[in-house]
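Q: What structure does this chain adopt?
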Amino acid sequence: MKTLIEHLDFLLTVDDNDSVIRDAAIVIDDDRIIDLGPTSQVLQRHSREGFDLVKDGTLTGMCPGFIDAHVHLSETLSRAVFPDNLNTRAWVFHWAKPFYAHISAEDEYWGALLGITEMLRSGTTCFLDMGSQYDPGITVRAMEKTGIRGITGRHAADNPPDVMPRGWTSAMVQHHFFADADTALRELQKCVEMYHGALDGRVRCWVNIEGKEPCSLELHVGARKLAEKLEVGTTYHLATSIEEARVCEKKYGIWPIARIEQAGGLGNNLVIAHGAAVSDEEVGTLRGYGTKVAFCPSSSFKLGKGATSIGKYPELITAGVTVGLGTDGVSAAGNMNMMRQMFLVAGMFKDARMQADILTVRQALRAATIEGAKTLMWDDEIGSLEIGKKADFILFDLDHVECVRPEPSDPRRRFDGFLVLWSAPGNRGGVVVPRAAYTFAYRVSLRLRSPLHHFFRGQAEAMALAMVRASSCLMNGTWP
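A:
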């Protein structure tokens, strides 16, 4: 199918030059971009009669689909269950682990379906999921239903705590932890061999592990080496907070990234989730290995990880480290909205350092698109709007009071990303996903109100309630 979208108010390519095309047109053949540029020039190269579909893009902006570089789809049913006064360690050991112990494979499926729907509603067209508690096929089923692109895996850990935390049971330990690193790696290899490349290439499967204390050094290093052997990536949590860094320093005399580096666990196929506690020396270490970082601003704010006080994200970007943006899980961050992550990252360091020219709108948009694609090692196909790439893009409806600006056709006008990030609401726009079972495109606001959506929501709500009731340690909170 050959499609033309013409007279777009602007098209943000997010190419190497951050090119912005005014009065733009884009030509899509099946699921790939075959031409783009000013409408007048594109129409000189193509006959209208040759298109199966022609759409008017007046009062509409376009940019690449957002790429969520760190998300927990199996956590979606926990929204609003955990208190809002937890630090990272308490959140993990006293809340997240008990939650995961009480979800079934079917819970996980409906949670993934709900989470993916939320992502699509706010412009995310690709994600890196930490993985299923049971089998990556659960997430693949949800991806098949929705048409989204993404990476998933089998969540793995092998190092249970010496002293069982409050609320834990032996059954929980058996559920969360493999017997040893070798057993975990064998299972992870089977998952990659089974699911990598599924759904005509929309699914990729990585060697994902939990990371940090729940994983042995052997598993950290083994995951990276196995991923290298299988020619895929790996991701795990590391240097997630100042708490983690202090615990690591007390036990081993060094911070987390330095410890993993000494063991041989860093590489260019590794994505570190969070990376909030990074020393000046470790910035250079990450650059040297080509290791990527997925920064999750909302999660850092909610759990007090220390990103604004100790975070080196501006320095990482300046040094040439690839930094993508992630939403984390809904209980850790509250949302799966990449617009919120861009808004936060473009403002938090300006305020924390009282420096208005640090981490600009352009850099925030790049982190959510092309840098996210590089993080996922998928930038040859997605992350920017260029000829030959997949047609994963977002349409922004500009026919709203938030988007009024002087002389909208003046080429001297500032970068249109200002409208995307600072002015437009996070749920404004439409998402187009190639070969999707559902295409979301809305003129007034992005509202998914189909009977199917209500069915998704009803199923997820019922399962979430049952899970909360089954887990007594999740029944107390701080809100009256």
